[in-house]
Amino acid sequence: MNKSFLKYILLGFGFAFLYFPIFTLIIYSFNESKRVMVWKGFSLKWYVELFKNEQILEAFYISIKIASISATFATLLGVMAGYSLARISKIPFRSFFIFISTAPLVMPEIILGLSLLLFFISANNLFGLPSSKGQLTVLISHITFSVAFVAVIIQARLSSFNKSIEEAAQDLGAVPNSVIWKVTLPVILPSIISGWLLAFTLSLDDLVIASFTTGPGANTLPIVVFSKVRMGLSPEVNALSAVIMLVIVTIAIGYYIKTRNKLDVN
Amino acid sequence: MISILKNFKFWFVFTPYFWLVAFFFIPLAIIMKISLSVSEWGMPPYKDILTTDEVTGNFIINITSGNYAFIFSDFFYLQSYLNSLSLAFTSTLICLIIGYPIAFYVAKSKPKTRNLLLILLIIPFWTSFLLRVYAWKVLLQGNGILNMILMKFGIITEPLSLLHNHYAVILGVVYTYLPFMILPLYGYLVKFDLRFIDAAHDLGSRNINTFFKVILPLSLPGIIAGCMLVFIPVVGEFVIPELLGGSDKLYFGKIIWNEFFVNRDWPVASALAMSGILFLIIPIVIFQISYSKYNFKNE
ipTM score of the complex? Predict the structure, then answer.
């Protein structure tokens, strides 16, 4: 009795801490007043403003575009890197390969951003490429730091998945090339999907690296939001938070219902 | 040769290898190079390492350790680095203290409740990082909700300035990084066999003793993973101090940002980044490589 009481108190406080700030934002997004914290009455005014704000809408579109392309490329490269780390022992300079495929995980964003910016500037001086900073440079940077995250997920999945299934397929006459397409990849497909989703969120969420590598026409959503909230509060950003929360909660409920049915079957 | 090119294994190694060398390793090498060069006015604002003498046509090597000497001699830079380390240390510790019981109780719930709780933990993690930091900016305002509550209950008579100090930064960091601590801890605790606890009890161990001698050691890999996931990014954190912090403490990330964007001193910014890597990243990577070699051998 005493023990479960402690459990509920701790969990209650924990989740209250996680959700209190988000709920406050959502409540204040319905505030009529321009001054965020002074309550003047219920209104949907800031939602209307949000959907009329071209700068935010365009940034949102750019962010989604960059995030989906970046996630796709990062997943391709990350699956290859994760497979190599877990299954291929003969890699030239193996330790170096491990270093470059895991170090981006622990590299502070600010250092990564600075190094990529200086790289793009040097490459531009030497080869004239990339001709200017913009969506392409942000995209390349996002792919680069997301690869490591996907690789770690895939490597972890492959290390826990029994090699003997692949060996059995080989014993039954499958050539290595078809083992990977017909056995390994289908087995790790859920990890590939979660890798893609992680890479997508990483790109959508990134402010620091994008700030370094962005250029004209490549203001992502975090860059625009940051410029709005750096100096003060913005009621439109409150509305934006509420919209994002709504989308995520909808996805989460859908996922929960799906997995709950699965559990019932089991 | 052609048979190699047909083998998928070659492409699986080569493609990410090539990408990461081009866009991760070479950029680091460029930072290294610029950190050793002499700064000057112009664009780019540093001298090339190799230039030719206009009169004699000889090559001149312009390498200096001056940027490093400068940042190590100026206490300002060292102080900002120490501030970042202490911020990372404090917030990692707080995350661990708050996160461990949550992860433990979630992992020990019945499967159905567990799934629901897990989703509730992940939702804030999927919400934009920037917006979660901004939420605290709204809460901690002079006329924000926390001050309003405190005043209503008569605890304070006039608004406290809760924002723009390093406590607000710690709060923001703990809030945004808590899921990074809870999720790996959960991953280890959920695999933990509850019968170990029963066995310890049967053998006469008391609750506290069981926790420190059985549960804690077995969840150590999760603790290490969680602490690394919080500690390392926080050392370079820029956004949270920028939004919630004040001028009482400067942090490493902000210093690099300022050297680059405000002072436009690329060599010093690069030297700062390089020393950050040397002090922070290299020990961790050595740990990682030896750990993965050890795992590979044990297979």
Answer: 0.88
- Residues of chain A contacting B25 with CB distance shorter than 8 Å: 100
How far is the C-alpha of B34 from the C-alpha of B58, rounded, in Å? Answer: 22
How many C-beta atoms lie closer than 10 Å to residue B279's C-beta?
12
Cβ neighbours, 10 Å, residue B125: 18
Q: Could you give the CA distance from residue A133 to residue A130 in angstroms, rounded to a whole number?
A: 7
Per-residue pLDDT reduced to its tens digit, B120-152: 888 887 888 899 999 998 888 877 777 777 887
Q: Chain B, 259-278: which have a CB under 8 Å from a chain A CB?
A: 260, 266, 269-270, 273, 276-277
**How close is the nearest chain B Cα to the Cα of A3, in Å?**
11
A263 interaction partners in chain B (CB closer than 8 Å) = 111-112, 115
What mean pLDDT value characterizes chain B? Answer: 83
Which range marks the domain in which residue B240 is found?
Answer: 74-264
What is d(CA A70, CA A74) in angstroms, rounded to the nearest whole number?
6
Neighbours of B205 (CB within 10 A): 16
Identity of the residue in B17, B131, B235 whose CB atom sits nearest the CB atom of A97: B17
Chain B residue nearest residue A160, CA to CA: B299
Residue B165 covered by a domain: yes
Pick from B28, B109, B131, B136 the residue to mutate for testing the A interface (most A CBs within 10 Å): B131
Q: What average pLDDT does this structure show over A206-219?
A: 90
Do residue A229 and residue B141 have CB atoms under 8 angstroms apart? no
Examine residue B101 and state whether it is found in any structural domain, yes or no. yes
CATH architecture of residue range(s) A54-232 = Orthogonal Bundle (1.10)
Asked if the structure places residue B9 within a domain, the reply is no
Residues A130-148 pLDDT 10s: 777 889 999 999 999 999 9
Q: Which residue in chain A is spatially nearest to B110 when comparing CA positions?
A: A263
Q: How many domains does chain B have?
A: 1
